[in-house]
């Protein structure tokens, strides 16, 4: 997110001039919580609990993993795109353990039955003979050109680690007309080059998630929508939170941070309330697929 608009991954062709440590902290402190309703809905639907072995791809700062662990699940998070966010996930999930340990004193399982890995999915092997029972990508996909294709490849590499019939959950933006933030996100597209350029924002498409599942050889098994409003204490928090998603990095690289900040501030103005807070209703989608 990283209740968030979730962080999206930007192509390596884009080299935005941003402070990644500050962005990661803004993600974890401001933006990531926006997706809590999505996480809760998915975990309720899949009955995530002590019997769950969960693999979280693109786990970011780890809030979704922490929520699964609090239900008793054994969680493994993988993220090779943002070491800064992964460091924050380690602070959340492994607060008192030396490197290499997976368990702690009695009564600490919800905070310590976890592994966090900076690398490809194959590094997450070791979930037991039956493999992972749930694989998640709860960072919304489909908001950047090329992101869905990359996610399909990532899932294809992770599927062999999951057991037969394991649930794979993908998340994405809902219809633009149901997401007030869509009008603000257009700031990310205007100065960022060709419409199909890698890393450039684009509106979510209706079948983004289904196309990713098909690319990875998964069988769709239901979907749903969840209201995830974006609420901020003030305009500055809104700008920082949205920038932390990474959706504006291509625009910053194509122009400069001041221009993007100015565009964001103007686009957010219609969503300001008389008390100075910022409020934008949004709907996110999720797809449940199964490992054949």
From TrEMBL:
Keywords for this protein: Methyltransferase, Transferase
Lineage: superkingdom: Bacteria
GO BP annotations, alphabetical order: methylation
Gene3D superfamilies hit by this protein: Vaccinia Virus protein VP39
GO MF term list: methyltransferase activity
InterPro entries: SAM-dependent_MTases_sf
Protein name, entry field: SAM-dependent methyltransferase
């Amino acid at each position: 997110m990283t209740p968030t608009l979730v962080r999206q991954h930007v192509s390596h062709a884009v080299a935005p001039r941003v402070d990644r440590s500050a962005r990661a902290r803004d993600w974890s402190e401001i933006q990531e919580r926006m997706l809590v309703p999505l996480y809760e809905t998915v975990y309720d639907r899949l009955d995530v609990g002590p019997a769950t072995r969960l693999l979280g791809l693109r786990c970011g700062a780890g809030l979704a993993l922490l929520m699964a662990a609090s239900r008793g699940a054994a969680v493994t998070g993988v993220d090779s795109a943002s070491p800064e966010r992964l460091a924050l996930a380690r602070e959340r999930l492994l607060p008192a353990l030396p490197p290499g340990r997976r368990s702690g004193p009695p009564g600490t399982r919800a905070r310590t039955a976890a592994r966090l890995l900076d690398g490809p999915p194959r590094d997450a092997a070791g979930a037991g003979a039956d493999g992972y029972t749930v694989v998640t990508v709860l960072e919304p996909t489909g908001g950047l050109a090329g992101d869905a294709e990359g996610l399909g490849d990532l899932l294809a590499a992770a599927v062999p680690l999951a057991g037969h019939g394991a649930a794979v959950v993908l998340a994405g933006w809902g219809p633009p007309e149901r997401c007030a933030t869509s009008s603000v996100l257009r700031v990310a597209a205007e100065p960022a080059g060709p419409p199909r350029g890698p890393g450039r924002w684009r509106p979510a498409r209706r079948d983004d998630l289904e196309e990713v599942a098909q690319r990875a050889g998964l069988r769709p098994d239901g979907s749903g929508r969840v209201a995830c409003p974006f609420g901020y204490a003030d305009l500055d928090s809104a700008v920082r939170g949205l920038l932390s998603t990474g959706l504006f990095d291509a625009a910053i690289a194509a122009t400069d941070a001041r221009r993007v900040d100015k565009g964001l501030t103007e686009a957010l103005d219609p969503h300001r309330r008389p008390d100075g807070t910022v409020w934008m209703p949004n709907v996110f989608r999720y797809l449940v697929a199964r490992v054949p």
